[in-house]
Amino acid sequence: MSSWYKSWILLTGFILFYVAYLLFGAFVFSTIERPVEDKLKRDIQVLKEEFLNQSCVNATSLENFLERVLQANKYGISILPNSSASSNWDLASSLFFANTLVTTVGYGHTTPLSDTGKAFSIFYALLGVPFTMLVLTACVQRLMHLVTYGPISMCRQKIGLEPLAATAVHFAILLLVVVLGFFVVPAVVFSYIEDTWSFLDAIYFCFITLCTIGLGDYVPGEKPGQNFRSLYKISVMVYLFVGLMMMYLVLRAFHRMADLHGLTSFFQLPHCDEDIEEDKEPIIEAGHEDQHEAEDSAKPLDPASQTSYNTINR
Amino acid sequence: MAAPDLVDPKSATHSSKPRRSFSAKSITLSPTEECQAIATVMKWKTVSAIFLLVVLYLVVGAAVFKALEQPHESAQRLAILTQKLDFLSTHSCVNHSQLEELVKQVVSAIRSGVNPAGTLTNHSSLWDLSSSFFFAGTVITTIGFGNISPHTEGGRIFCIIYALLGIPLFGFLLAGVGDQLGTIFGKATARVEKMFVQWDVSQTKIRVLSTVLFILFGCLLFVALPAAIFKHIEGWSALESLYFVVITLTTIGFGDFVAGGSEIEYLDYYKPVVWFWILVGLAYFAAVLSMIGDWLRVISKKTKEEVGEIRAHAAEWTANVSAEFKETRRRLSVEVYDKFQRAASIKSKMSSELGLNSDPELTPPKRKMSVNFTNELDREKEPVSPPVTNKNGSPFLNGKGVDPKRGDIAITPQVEVTTFNL
């Protein structure tokens, strides 16, 4: 009974800490962004007044017009002359949209307009999201053998490091490789192709995309008159997929490392679920693994014990 | 002569081996060395198969979306162009470039979250504390609506660092909430199961029933009820509210519909309640989606097993057929051989009667073999006794004296040996 009590206390502690974290973030965002927003408001007000002053348009008809324009813009349709003649729903863009739906990134730069489209999105997402998670975790499990277990055992044998130190070193190297290969290099490419993006914007985009947050303020390939638009969108899709896989890999490696260093059992968090048959070369000898397996079996019901929604391990 | 496999008693056992081993392979799943190698190869195949399936799924989805949305989009585009032309013609003092300049500014303002339509004086900020709290929440849960997003460089850098720390934090929280939900659910199902056990319902039915109940109850509490509330407060249609709920709880978060994002006057506790609902709803959706994932996995496993079973059956069938073929061949050759032996013995007997020397030393070893196999078959019908040699069809052997008898005695142990082996 006391361990159950303890877990409730830990949970409340977690929630409180989380709320505090959110408040902190809210405060910082507010202080940084609010002045900029106020200035923009003033600017746009001035613009509107100037426009109304020098023309015969009255306020109400302008409001109506603007409302319609903004409504259309919400759906991705622009009335500006050099807006691309290409549709937002040609095959490549629809594929891109389906991909953002299924990987839960969800930019929102194009959203389904029709009712049927919305209903279809619901079913498509409900089926497609677990499907994608399944594929990604399956790939990551296979990759773990290649990328994690192999090098670590090699590290231990050739250099003769302690197991714990070997995992830490390996994790650091993996993190460095992923950051360089999936954030820095793509950011350079994006800032080169998209001429309105700076390098910081591109890194921000890569990060927001690969964490599947997908705010949608930056979306590649939306520039009017983009060359090879379909090819570009499809390569961004591939980048998204592979990048997500690498992020899961890093997360999983981190989780295993935390397991081995005893952090997860300290915080009474769920352990890294690994299928026992597939786990052929444990990082540390069987002693540790048995301990974790025993603790694994003590977990409550299966459907509810996941690290995070995005890292469904099983 | 009939092949060495006739001579070798081991071959008799070889024929029965394949039968046993294939059926054993299909039942047990213990990872032996070769099973492991086969299993890893098959798994890569499975992964690539699933990958191709996902790509196919995406392409199908793209085609359907295109078919559904493109006509609507063209209609919208036409409408707005007509609007523009109307406006320009009604208000002749405005020229093209001025209007476009205005629209461009307005659109970028909208992107920054400032809505220039309507009076701006009483417009609440998008970055007041409660909205920033909401934004921070959308970043950490990775929903990322996008109706609010940071525009300053400092804001973006902070956003990156904030998300790096916050997402794992939220992940742990979600795991904790999910665990508690799971425990509560487990206790509830245990009580329900106790009730049903009294009524003598089978275990599997109870499990299925409890899963269905879980899904229904959760849907009611986390999907249907909030959708109804949103419909009432935000003024969306039923489909739009449901669409918003699903898109939010799967963390896709398009941002075309955002609870608390419109111009309506909201109650003070509305946004925090929405945030709390998102937290618990995410845990529920994680459970449901992992269940769907498990079903897909079970289906793929079952398909693999069935394919494996079909393969095992096919291999078993081929092994049986070849074994029977061998058996038939052996019987045929034995019969042929036996007839030859009888002919030879008749010939030797006749020649001995005629005073010619027969060579009994040559034949006994071979006779041993032939008698072995025929006797083995006959053993099933009759009890063991030396007179069994009568079945060979040559009564002369009995009367012949020591030689056949010698052969006789020498034969029987061998017969026993082979039957033992078989």
Automatic annotation (TrEMBL), chain A:
<dbReference type="InterPro" id="IPR013099">
    <property type="entry name" value="K_chnl_dom"/>
</dbReference>
<dbReference type="GO" id="GO:0022841">
    <property type="term" value="F:potassium ion leak channel activity"/>
</dbReference>
<dbReference type="GO" id="GO:0046872">
    <property type="term" value="F:metal ion binding"/>
</dbReference>
<feature type="domain" description="Potassium channel">
    <location>
        <begin position="84"/>
        <end position="144"/>
    </location>
</feature>
<dbReference type="GO" id="GO:0015271">
    <property type="term" value="F:outward rectifier potassium channel activity"/>
</dbReference>
<dbReference type="InterPro" id="IPR003092">
    <property type="entry name" value="2pore_dom_K_chnl_TASK"/>
</dbReference>
<keyword id="KW-0633">Potassium transport</keyword>
<protein>
    <recommendedName>
        <fullName>Potassium channel subfamily K member</fullName>
    </recommendedName>
</protein>
<keyword id="KW-0407">Ion channel</keyword>
<keyword id="KW-0325">Glycoprotein</keyword>
<keyword id="KW-0472">Membrane</keyword>
<keyword id="KW-0458">Lysosome</keyword>
<dbReference type="GO" id="GO:0030322">
    <property type="term" value="P:stabilization of membrane potential"/>
</dbReference>
<feature type="glycosylation site" description="N-linked (GlcNAc...) asparagine">
    <location>
        <position position="82"/>
    </location>
</feature>
<feature type="transmembrane region" description="Helical">
    <location>
        <begin position="122"/>
        <end position="144"/>
    </location>
</feature>
<keyword id="KW-0813">Transport</keyword>
<feature type="transmembrane region" description="Helical">
    <location>
        <begin position="7"/>
        <end position="32"/>
    </location>
</feature>
<dbReference type="InterPro" id="IPR003280">
    <property type="entry name" value="2pore_dom_K_chnl"/>
</dbReference>
<feature type="region of interest" description="Disordered">
    <location>
        <begin position="280"/>
        <end position="314"/>
    </location>
</feature>
<feature type="compositionally biased region" description="Polar residues">
    <location>
        <begin position="304"/>
        <end position="314"/>
    </location>
</feature>
<dbReference type="Pfam" id="PF07885">
    <property type="entry name" value="Ion_trans_2"/>
</dbReference>
<keyword id="KW-1133">Transmembrane helix</keyword>
From TrEMBL, chain B:
<protein>
    <submittedName>
        <fullName>Potassium two pore domain channel subfamily K member 2</fullName>
    </submittedName>
</protein>
<dbReference type="Pfam" id="PF07885">
    <property type="entry name" value="Ion_trans_2"/>
</dbReference>
<keyword id="KW-0813">Transport</keyword>
<feature type="transmembrane region" description="Helical">
    <location>
        <begin position="242"/>
        <end position="262"/>
    </location>
</feature>
<keyword id="KW-0407">Ion channel</keyword>
<feature type="region of interest" description="Disordered">
    <location>
        <begin position="375"/>
        <end position="408"/>
    </location>
</feature>
<comment type="similarity">
    <text>Belongs to the two pore domain potassium channel (TC 1.A.1.8) family.</text>
</comment>
<keyword id="KW-1133">Transmembrane helix</keyword>
<feature type="domain" description="Potassium channel">
    <location>
        <begin position="124"/>
        <end position="180"/>
    </location>
</feature>
<dbReference type="GO" id="GO:0015271">
    <property type="term" value="F:outward rectifier potassium channel activity"/>
</dbReference>
<keyword id="KW-0630">Potassium</keyword>
<feature type="transmembrane region" description="Helical">
    <location>
        <begin position="157"/>
        <end position="177"/>
    </location>
</feature>
<keyword id="KW-0812">Transmembrane</keyword>
<feature type="transmembrane region" description="Helical">
    <location>
        <begin position="208"/>
        <end position="230"/>
    </location>
</feature>
<feature type="transmembrane region" description="Helical">
    <location>
        <begin position="49"/>
        <end position="68"/>
    </location>
</feature>
<feature type="transmembrane region" description="Helical">
    <location>
        <begin position="274"/>
        <end position="296"/>
    </location>
</feature>
<keyword id="KW-1015">Disulfide bond</keyword>
<dbReference type="GO" id="GO:0030322">
    <property type="term" value="P:stabilization of membrane potential"/>
</dbReference>
<dbReference type="InterPro" id="IPR003976">
    <property type="entry name" value="2pore_dom_K_chnl_TREK"/>
</dbReference>
<keyword id="KW-0406">Ion transport</keyword>
<dbReference type="GO" id="GO:0022841">
    <property type="term" value="F:potassium ion leak channel activity"/>
</dbReference>
<feature type="domain" description="Potassium channel">
    <location>
        <begin position="219"/>
        <end position="297"/>
    </location>
</feature>
